[in-house]
Amino acid sequence: MQPDHWHQCWRENRIGFHQLHTSPMLEAHWNAVTAATRGRVFVPLCGKSLDMRWLAQRGHQVLGVELSQLAVTAFFDELGVIPTVHTSRYGKHHISGPYELIVGDAFALDEQALANCVAVFDRAAVIALPPEMRSRYLNELYSRLARNCSVLMITLEYPQAEKSGPPFSVTEQEVRASLEPAWQVDLLKRRDILASEPSFAADGVSALSTCAYRLRVQPAMHLASA
């Protein structure tokens, strides 16, 4: 989707994608991704997600990137804090406590911006992008992550012909085709959620699942690139 689409969603408060609770898949599977590691977590297309609070409460520093200034302002307003602000080549940085949220384009982040991230939580980004942008996102941005970085990716699967995105359907086949063999892709859970998503049923979607993946750089690939 083009940036104007997301800016308009925030201006018009059409943010049905914003969850009013922490993502259940994050709560259930985060430890399988990070074990006891505490460090900086990258959250692409972060909006004002409550998942960032959950991560911070568990001792992580949070690096978010978001196109909408309205979303970032709302996040800190709802926390009741005033962030310090500065500008870099990546965008406009808002920093307070464990949070650093950048108003900018995720594709503009390079290896230096992501160097200190030990993990990624990707719930909103991969399903927000249409196929051509998603391919670029997975091939370009993921290649800039540090070699010791692990990812928890949450996707949706449904018959794409039955509903136009976003959110888009991202199949296991696509995840593996996009990331293997550079990444070890482990499907942690696939769960049927159609009954709990009435808007999908109302649109005529016949099946809907959410999937959690753990992604790790393959050791062989690490050695080959050293």
| Count of individual helical segments | 9
- Hey, roughly how much beta strand do the residues contain? 25-35%
SSE order, one letter for each helix or strand: HHEHEHEEEHEHEHEHEH
CATH topology: Rossmann fold
Number of strands: 9
The top-level CATH class is Alpha Beta
**Radius of gyration from the CA trace?**
17 Å
Please identify which CATH superfamily we are dealing with.
Vaccinia Virus protein VP39
Q: For the report, how would you describe the main beta sheet?
A: 9 strands, mixed
Overall domain count? 1
Poorly predicted regions are 222-226
CATH architecture: 3-Layer(aba) Sandwich
Overall geometry comes to globular
Determine the N-to-C terminus distance.
36 Å
Proportion in helices: 25-40%
Structure explained in plain terms:
This protein has 226 residues and is α/β, with parallel strands linked by helices. It has a single domain, classed as Rossmann fold. The protein contains nine helices and nine strands. The chain is globular. 37% of the residues are buried.
Lay out the secondary structure:
Blueprint: H1 3-11, H2 24-34, E1 40-44, H3 51-57, E2 61-66, H4 69-79, E3 84-88, E4 91-96, E5 99-103, H5 111-114, E6 117-122, H6 131-141, E7 150-157, H7 172-179, E8 183-192, H8 198-202, E9 209-217, H9 219-225
Parallel strand pairs: 1-2, 1-6, 2-5, 6-7
Antiparallel strand pairs: 3-4, 4-5, 7-9, 8-9
Question: Concise description?
Answer:
By secondary structure, the chain is of the alpha/beta class. The protein is 32% helix and 27% strand. It has a single domain, classed as Vaccinia Virus protein VP39 (Rossmann fold, 3-Layer(aba) Sandwich), CATH 3.40.50.150.
